[in-house]
Amino acid sequence: MGCQPTGTVAPDQIDIPALREKYREEREKRLRGEGQTQYVRPTGGIVENFAADPHQPLVPREPIREETDVVILGAGWGGIMAAYHLTKSGVTNFRNIDSAGDFGGVWYWNRYPGIQCDNDAYCYLPLLEEMGFMPSKKFSDGSEIHGYAKAIADRFGFADKALFHTLANTLRWDASINRWRVGTNRGDEILARFVIIAAGVLNMPKLPAVAGIDAFKGKIFHTSRWDYGYTGGSHASPVLDRLADKRVAIVGTGATAIQAVPHLGKYAKHLYVVQRTPSSVDERPNPPTDADWAASLEPGWQAARQANFHKAAMEGLGPGDPDLICDIWTEVARNLAAELEGEGWPALSIEEFMAKRESVDYRVMDRLRRRVESLVEDPATAEALKPYYRFLCKRPLSSDEFYPTFNRSNVELIDVSATRGLQELTETGFIANGKEYPVDCVIFASGFEVTSDLERRWGMDVVEGRDGVSIYDAWRDGPKTLHGTMTHGFPNQFYIGYIQGGLNATVTNQFGGQGEHIAHIIAETLKRGASSVEPSAEAQADYVRHFEEIEIDLSAFNLECPPSYFNNEGEAKPKWALFRGYGHGWAAFSALLETWRSEGDMKGLTLS
Fold it and tell me: In whole angstroms, what is the distance from residue 224 CA to residue 203 CA?
């Protein structure tokens, strides 16, 4: 099964040098000198504290004093996959700790209208064969994903071990007892042999540091803390009927906004969509899962599909490789493979191959700009919505409803690229391009702290290893690890995320691989009767040197992209870049870890 290449213009119809200059101009006019500090964390006041839960009431409880083998910080996909692999490894004395009220992570917090997975759910939802579950459609609804996350915890027996509505705020290594002292905002004191930090990628909401944000007298909230009490409707039925007499501004046009805007446009008296940088938005066919197709799948189908998606999205399709995913994520690879097939798969140098890929990239983005013209009636609005940048400079999105929403008489796009963002909030509205717009409600679809400094993302005041060294200081210039999962000086501490390891197109698959490796080390350490384990300084230095020697330099690409969380607001070499992965690819990295585990000597780790 596969699909055909998309219809793009011929290579000689694209003026790449001219477009490259256009891309540069569009980037430059959006860059801000403040970088990541142009955003702030919601800590209370005008916008609720990030840890406050609008979905479930906080149930009072007494502080807990206990000892456990493992504390997993997080109950989203990283925490769930860690718990699953610990359970498989026979380690069952553990707790997940999360500020949310249940499992699900980003899918617990985000309940805005229209929320769906924006890539292939048959890849994204982990453990489908183990669970005997099939997503109801290609792009699952958020409620289905949240329910599935909880079902995994129930099925594998760790649902009742979690501490919810609990934020870990201090981690201190106590060398006298070889334990981590875990403190929380509920007054808990937990002694843990091991700690797994699975804080997630989209866990810490951010707000633009807009002048006057505390002066606005209307309603303000972040999309990840949607207030249905104000808008009307519910997660299950997003009929936003209380907005019928409201003037609403939504700030941002990223992955969240393109799903929420059609609902806001339908119900609000007037909607202002405030945009700094447009997203690329393709079509979104999303029919119900075909029952005959599902019944025809052979064992191992999900791993094969994930591998196919990874090749198409992150590496490239070779002779005879089908595209099983067939959406915007795989279009560049699919079109490139079709062209190379037509040429008989010629032998190309790296430079020749990348030139061909660049040509396909520019033509795909041209197709997406033409799509805007075909769907948005007002020429000025259409032009402002066109994405002028390389593919994967920003997250590729899809929606059949976003662009047509701008044809409604009550919906207005406010392009703030000239001022590099919203200028100011007043008591009664917002100022953009020197004009004040009165509104009753401002909704921030401004995203999350993804590639910014750890202090901004983890939400923990103190993380101190041996001799009181802070991880924030130890990693000030970027991570230093063995295999992306442990670091010297922080015994018995592990990490799940985008940290100096293999990069996979399916984030849950990547987190699962990390969870498996971590569970192996913990189980072996316990089995061998050791009280602590950490990388030796020499082994860590060797791995970091190897990682950096084979790392793909993306600085030139990053400098072609507008500011976003992908490049930490315009940096050439962000130290926490999402695409900073093991240079030889996911398969090679997975083989490296599998060989390491099978050798059995835990090479590079010091056990005491």
Answer: 9
